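Weekly modeling sync, notes
Attendees: S.R. (lead), two postdocs, one rotation student

Agenda item 3: backlog of single-chain predictions. S.R. asked that every request posted to the team notebook include the full sequence so nobody has to chase files. The rotation student volunteered to paste the first one in as an example of the format we agreed on. Action items at the bottom.

Example entry:
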Amino acid sequence: MLELADIFRAYGPAYRQTYGDRMLPRHTQALWDIEHGRTPMLGGACYYCPQCRAYQYSYHSCGNRHCPTCESDRADHWRNTQLEHLLPVPYFLVTGTLPHTLNPRARAHQKLIDDLLFQTSADALQTLARNPKWLGGTIGLVGVRHTWDRSRGYHLHVHYLLPAGGIDPTTGAWTSSHPKFLVPGSALRTVFRATFRDALKTAAPELFAQVPPDTWTTTWVVHCQAVGDGRTALKYLAPYIYRVALSNRRLVSLDHGTVTFRYKPRHQPWKTMTLDALAFIQRFLQHILPKGFQKSRETFPVTDPPDPIPAGQLGPADPVRSSAADPLMRRKIQRTPAPRNSPRDAQRGHVQRWLGCVAAHNTKLYSVSVGRALLEPRPLPPHLTTDTNQKYT
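Predicted structure, as returned to the notebook:
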């Protein structure tokens, strides 16, 4: 099966030679990590079965969050954590998209524009939600930033999952919206555009002067739809948190300096696109996140209502704790890292498949740490003892 790392190993050196003087440090790091993941350059471990005298090297993964091989299991953990905090109310999915005239500036000033996108889109939603004409309450938001379209081109937008209701800022009581209507889309587009324009003008006046003037007069794309209890929407958003723009399963072929991958247009069957290898790498690297940037952000109103919030106001569902000490929507999301098995546990789980040894699960396996200096596999030393943590470099 073709992997992204295979393409990077084949054409990464040529890409660095062509664009090395213009590459961002995070692009250089991601390219190197994915290129050398699960190779002798990162070290690893060797497992040995003394019964059949078989051994297998297993090298460490790169651990880069943009590697499609290393981030396959964390999306489910994020989704399960968010599911635990869903309220028994209807939910809405709101999508705010920046116009394409801003994309070149967004790529060149990624951290600034991404932060402004989160800040201004959330402020626009909160402004309309606090209006008594629509909801009259402060809402909670779970936002996910997304940078690619279906063909994996640059397309910056943000998704928000929010409940059909909020906290009244004066009484602390829960106030519900209509299950099919939250705020008017036309007003949300106008407020979002004006808020982003003012924030960009204040934060970066020189960058604001470079934006084409018609950007602030065109209609921005903002979409708001009801999504039931929110579970399906979380399933849709979860892959964007810990997965990358191009996964290995979308790659079709690498042939004579071109890469072919699959993509699915909206309401159409799957299609393929063929790009020059260097153009393919460039398309992938433009989605690399700034260092330390959080792809998802949560905002919850913090209030101390004088009286407990009756669970009956939320509609028939599971019992909800409600008290002054633990008010609705003040539930803190525990930012616990996704559980990861140690490399040794993962390797032992597959050692029988690697060694092809039926006795592997019934025999004490010897594990030898392989240092980074070991660039070529070599047989285990004959004096290997029962110590399962011997150093071997």
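Discussion: group reviewed the output briefly. The chain has a mean pLDDT of 76.
Action items: rotation student to repeat for the remaining queue; S.R. to check formatting next week.
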